[in-house]
């Protein structure tokens, strides 16, 4: 009898993730990155995938139960209560002591860079992917996150398909900690709601703290502007089809 098929979850030049039944295999040549990911999962007070084994460059993780909040650019299969529970889980992540997580140093993806924003805007301008006015408005929004004094332990890539909940709207797992480290906590809230702005209020309600909503929207712009060139250069298809491009058009129009 045939065993489970091998499914490619994501693959690019930096790393790849495969699924075989209920086991996920992350292939990453960066040993330090894998070490940091395992340390992050051990430090946070939210459910994370169980480490089955690791043998460089492979990390084997057990599948977490539940349903993902949704996909970026797609519909969400869960209601407002699940998004509120996710907001509470994000607050718990941000309460993780940086020293305990071994994350005193900032994760590069979590720290906004003026050079990276300028390079991304030049990339867009050279290709004419956005109307000039839309690009300029998003550039101005993205500049608002530069030099942010906010600092906490962050997931770094908290997309809605990285958060799983059960039928009782309890968070059952948060996956993909490869970008975890010190950074602006509003980045996590922004990435989580980027494609589902209608649930920003639900997430903030669960987060239970005052949140600068304009800063979240500024992170939407920065994240999309800087992500699209990277995705295009790593073979993710035509950039005009990306949900990130749709967000830039949505918020910069």
UniProtKB/TrEMBL annotation:
<dbReference type="Pfam" id="PF01636">
    <property type="entry name" value="APH"/>
</dbReference>
<protein>
    <submittedName>
        <fullName>Phosphotransferase</fullName>
    </submittedName>
</protein>
<dbReference type="GO" id="GO:0016740">
    <property type="term" value="F:transferase activity"/>
</dbReference>
<feature type="domain" description="Aminoglycoside phosphotransferase">
    <location>
        <begin position="21"/>
        <end position="211"/>
    </location>
</feature>
<keyword id="KW-0808">Transferase</keyword>
<dbReference type="InterPro" id="IPR011009">
    <property type="entry name" value="Kinase-like_dom_sf"/>
</dbReference>
<dbReference type="InterPro" id="IPR051678">
    <property type="entry name" value="AGP_Transferase"/>
</dbReference>
<dbReference type="InterPro" id="IPR002575">
    <property type="entry name" value="Aminoglycoside_PTrfase"/>
</dbReference>
